[in-house]
Amino acid sequence: MLRYYLSIDPELLPDEKWASTLSALKEIRKIEKDSNGQRT
Fold first, then answer.
1. Of 16, 21, 24, 29, which one is least surrounded by beta carbons within 10 A?
2. Which superkingdom (predicted)?
3. Can you tell me the distance from the alpha carbon of 11 to that of 18, in angstroms, rounded to the nearest whole number?
């Protein structure tokens, strides 16, 4: 997901940065989905 959406290579990130970036991406995707009126 990080490579596809953010063009970030997760292999180059320290564990803490990888986890926080993934968390931020999940939140961004949730906000995008909610703003498009989609539901899970």
1. 16
2. Bacteria
3. 9
In whole angstroms, give the CA distance from residue 13 to residue 11.
6
Would you state the structure tokens that stand for residue 16, as one six-digit string? 């803490």
Q: If 0-12 CB within 10 Å is exposed, 13-18 middle and 19+ buried, where does residue 25 land?
A: middle
Task: Render pLDDT for 3-38 as a digit per residue (tens, 0 to 9).
Answer: 888 888 888 989 999 999 999 999 999 999 999 876
pTM of the model: 0.69
Q: What is the dihedral of CA 13, 16, 19, 25, to 10 degrees?
A: -70
